[in-house]
Design goal:
Layout: H1 13-27, H2 39-46, H3 50-62, E1 66-69, E2 73-76, H4 85-105, H5 110-136
Antiparallel strand pairs: 1-2
Helix pairs in contact: 1-3, 1-4, 2-3
Length: about 140
């Protein structure tokens, strides 16, 4: 799972973590029963305070997305019906709308914006393939 924090977005970091884990669960990138990274290593990887990751995990647990098993870690719950297709779509629409508004403010033409979206999707796909290949080694 690849989490990316935007320190300049103005959105609280813990909410960025929550949103990205919810999106990963909704898309199938995270499977039910799959263990999430431990708090300390994830905080170090993201270069954020451990309490920030703990707060994100606590929020995810209260939403019923994950469960914490003492001594074993945090796991994606099998029944995350709150992340049905409509919810995934709404999450994505919010993110797309923000990107479109930002592109408008930066006076980025439509075609250039769409090309940039495709380029970034290619980069993400390359990272996924690199991760899969790294895990197989």
């Amino acid at each position: 799972m690849i989490l990316q924090i935007n320190f300049k977005s103005g959105m609280p970091i813990y909410l960025q973590v929550v949103d990205q884990i919810k999106a990963a669960a909704a898309s199938g990138a995270l499977r039910p029963g799959e263990v999430l990274p431990s708090i300390r290593p994830l905080a170090e990887e993201l270069r954020v305070n451990r309490n920030t990751v703990a707060k994100a995990y606590s929020e995810l647990e209260s939403l019923g997305v994950i469960e914490t098993l003492p001594g074993r870690g945090c796991f994606l719950k099998g029944n995350h019906s709150a992340l049905r297709k409509e919810v995934r779509r709404k999450l994505l629409i919010v993110e797309i709308d923000q990107a479109i508004v930002q592109a408008h403010h930066l006076q980025v033409p439509r075609q250039e914006f769409l090309e940039l979206v495709n380029e970034r999707m290619d980069v993400l796909e390359d990272k996924r393939h690199a991760n899969v290949n790294h895990k197989e080694d």
